[in-house]
Amino acid sequence: MADTTAGFDAVLFLSFGGPDGPEDVMPFLENVTRGRGVPRERLEAVAEHYFHFGGISPINRLNLDMIDALRSELEARDRRLPVYFGNRNWHPMVEDTVAEMFRDGHRRILVFPTSAWAGYSGCRQYHEDIARALDALAHREPATATDDPILLRKIPQYWDADAMIDAGADAITRAAGAMPAGDVPPRLVFTAHSVPLSADRAAGPASDGGGLYSRQVYAAATAVADRVGHTDFDQVWQSRSGPPQVPWLEPDICDHLEALAAQGVRQVIAYPIGFISDHLEVVWDLDNEAADVAARLGIDYVRADTVGTDPRFIRLIADLIERYAEGGGDLRAMGCGDNGAPCRPDCCVPVARPSRVSGAAS
Ligand SMILES: CC1=C(CCC(=O)O)c2cc3nc(cc4[nH]c(cc5[nH]c(cc1n2)c(C)c5CCC(=O)O)c(CCC(=O)O)c4C)C(CCC(=O)O)=C3C
Ligand SMILES: [Fe+2]
Questions:
Q1: What is d(CA 341, CA 248) in angstroms, rounded to the nearest whole number?
Q2: Which ligand 1 atom sits nearest the alpha carbon of residue 38?
Q3: Residues 98, 252: Cα–Cα separation, whole Å
Q4: Is 141 labelled as part of a ligand binding site?
Q5: Residue 334's domain spans which residues?
Q6: CA distance linking residue 143 with residue 362, whole number of Å
Q7: 82-99: pLDDT as tens digits
Q8: Considering the domain boundaries, does residue 72 fall inside one?
Q9: Would you say the CB of residue 121 lies under 6 angstroms from ligand 1?
């Protein structure tokens, strides 16, 4: 059994990954969608989004910037924990990073995931990444089994942290400042990545019918809206994929803009609450697609900043690391787990039809 009181000696910043050039785009997309039944046409369409930006996803640069800021923050706090970077779908791959950490002598590793949420894509899949990296390590370094055992502990979901709510509220206030003056306050629209309904239903307490991801997103949106004094807001979803006959969380942001225009709404602030940085889903799906739809409908549209740009977010990451680094923190907290073990039963472990959900989000 892992010693839960021992201090941690390194941090793994674990993210999604993205292509660094045009030749990376298709292999990256194949990694993302391996075994998931995403239609070829969807892959080709998404590849075009990446090609629009020279085949380079902004996500790697943004993560490296966040890691730089985090290193400075830890340094300022006199926490001498090295921060390593690894991804699920592109280089540096998590398997390589964990092997490097092992070779550097690290055996107690805290994992910070760049998703704040529950659910298969937002939480459980990060546990799978950790398990896969450990599996690869056991093959590359057979001594791991007998040696000083390695421990990777994933920090739990942080969507409800004050820093997330405050940073979101301020981003919306800045967006409102950039909006031309109107007769009525702009409509507030929160957006997050859609997931298949079956995947959403399969995470969270069975007594609540699952839906932990969508309920967290809605609760976070409510808290942010409250902070900016809006009693009214809309929760929408974006970037759906998968075959059209499979139901996903709705409404889609672009369909919703049409509905708002039909109701006479003239101004919209879109806040991407589901993402921590301005990666491709934000700069393409929101800043191009949704912005074009809004322009066609004659709606003034401002997309609010993600939390990645806010120093409070970096301090939050450092706070979480400090809390868990000395063996503190609540190990029963949602999404927390060691060495890729599944979350506790009412977190992201499938609660219904496990055979359909495990390993496939669509
Ligand atoms: C909930 C959620 C988050 C938020 C939590 C988190 O942040 O982890 C998220 C983040 C991201 N999704 C990203 C990119 C993609 N997601 C895809 C596909 C999918 N996402 C899904 C869900 C989520 N995704 C799902 C259910 C699929 C269907 C296939 C599958 O189950 O895997 C595909 C395949 C093509 C397509 O189907 O669109 C791509 C390229 C990038 C990187 C962007 C960049 O390069 O800057 C990021 C941060
Ligand atoms: Fe979880």
A1: 27
A2: 37
A3: 37
A4: no
A5: 10-159+310-357
A6: 38
A7: 999 999 999 999 999 999
A8: yes
A9: yes
